[in-house]
Fold each of these.
Amino acid sequence: MIQKQFRFKSWDGFIQIVLKKGAPTRSESFSIKTLPSAHPYVRSRYNKLVNTRPKLNSNMPLAPKFAVVVSKKVSKSAVVRNRIRRRIFEWIRLNNQSLRQDQLTMVFVNTDSVAKITYNELNEQLAELFKKAQLYI
């Protein structure tokens, strides 16, 4: 699992901004929505958070932030969904130094085949998708 500072919070409002304004990139098993941290909506929301609660948010890093979304359409079993989520977060944790540090990124899983593939195949698919989205250095 990646550190808390690299994950989206439910209360900070960045998730909605990335969903509405993020640029999509797709592969057969995954989709990514990404938004630069310099985007005006992101900057505005960040400044509002820092100004309203300075003690809580003053040292909050703006980017990089990651989220992994695995819907019930992928698998009805929470165990399987959480396994997929953990595997993707682990890939992000191991490759964090190779990823662009100025982006807010959400990864969506489209198929349940992700739960059954090996880590090497997962690594190849995610690396290819992140390169396609120009997030992989």
Amino acid sequence: MVVTNQLFDQLQELVPDLSIRPAVGDRIVGLSWHTWDLAASQPAEYPPEGEPEGYIWDRAHEPDVAAAMDAMSELLMPVVDCTYREVDPDDPDSKMDVVVPDAKLPLWFRTRAEWGDFIVAEPIYGWLRQNVQQWLTFKPFDYKIA
């Protein structure tokens, strides 16, 4: 997860053990996504290959856009090896069952090192919903201790 350094400072007040590393901006492109109709059933434009990464990778790096951006960093979160399954895989709003290895968990962690979900404790969830909900998707889950 990449955040502005300003957002990281706010998050670190809530979760002091969060750490970051500078994000590498090898390919920064101007993409006016904030003007898109988020209520539309389909985007007005799809990348040629149809994959979301194409919005970035199919365009050339724009140094002037990169220079105008705020400093960005990658959040480095602890990884807790979890197993999980969707209760109803056909329902995108269904809960998930998550099996955690231990009852003592960080306030915010990833379930896998690559492509893992982010799991947050209630106080962080409330803060995220209040401050950055428009950029995140939340999904409820039940957990069991292994």
